[in-house]
Amino acid sequence: MRERPARAWSWASLAALADANLPRIFFHYDSVTPIATITMSVHFHIGEAERAALADDFLLVDASSAIAHAGVFDQTVRAWSRAGKLVLSSTQIAAFNIVS
User: What is the pLDDT of residues 69-100, one digit of tens each?
Assistant: First the structure.
């Protein structure tokens, strides 16, 4: 992922990146279902100098989900720099409407 228009990564834009992936539940149903975040934690694994060094480069984002059941799902996100450094990790629990 990358900012568009291109601009340097800020702490705020990195935090937004942690929530920018399509929720995994969207890949399960044929139609988009409303979702609402219950909890979300973002952990930064870099310091100020490393954040500045990211400039406006792409980040590799990996998102996965372990379970979706009874209207609740989890999502784990990790973002990596081009140099292979873990930039951030995030976990999220969200509620969704079951589409029939």
Answer: 888 999 999 999 999 999 999 999 999 887 66
Task: Output the pTM of the full model.
Answer: 0.85
Question: Is the separation of the CB atoms in 76 and 90 below 8 Å?
Answer: yes
What is the maximal distance between C-alpha atoms in the chain? 49
Please list the alpha-helical segments (H only) found in the chain. 11-17, 48-54
DSSP secondary structure letter of residue 19: T
Render pLDDT for 12-55 as a digit per residue (tens, 0 to 9): 999 999 988 877 777 777 777 788 999 999 999 999 999 999 99
The residues, ordered by sequence, that sit 6+ positions from 48 with a Cβ below 8 Å of its Cβ are none
Contact between residue 73 and residue 3 where contact means Cβ atoms under 8 Å apart: no
Containing 78, the helix (H) or strand (E) segment is: strand 72-80
Residue type at 22 in one-letter notation: L
